[in-house]
């Protein structure tokens, strides 16, 4: 079984690209996920996890999320490799998300009403009053 669920904050704005030929959307970004236990000095640390998401969810993420926003990710861990220009082999481990939840909203045009845009994108905003914790 290869399944991962993460909650964290975007470390930078998502980068949206489209595959050559098919034009399928792919967004890449990283999230900072707090570690549960502080280090020996009592300081909380975080892990920075690279995320890849495809299709309509990639477009929505790039359009509505920005650096610092809180997201929930569900997907699988993938490891791949490639040959670098210097001839060495490079390995990348990332999470390929199949589901994303926007836990904080907004990007550009902060303060404007995005509900119609969110609904058009198939996204249902969650009212913090509905969260049981």
Automatic annotation (TrEMBL):
Pfam families according to UniProt:
SSB
SUPFAM superfamilies registered for this protein in UniProt: Nucleic acid-binding proteins (SSF50249)
Q: Does the keyword DNA-binding apply?
A: yes
Superkingdom field: Bacteria
Family matches, as InterPro entries: NA-bd_OB-fold, Primosome_PriB/ssb, ssDNA-bd
According to its record, what are the GO cellular component terms? nucleoid
GO molecular function of the protein, one example? single-stranded DNA binding
The record's Gene Ontology biological-process terms are: DNA replication
Q: Keywords in UniProt for this one? A: DNA-binding
The subunit structure is:
Homotetramer.
Instruction: Quote the protein name from its UniProt record.
Output: Single-stranded DNA-binding protein
Q: Which species is the source of this protein?
A: Clostridium pasteurianum BC1
Which lineage is the organism of this entry classified under, starting from the top rank?
Bacteria, Bacillati, Bacillota, Clostridia, Eubacteriales
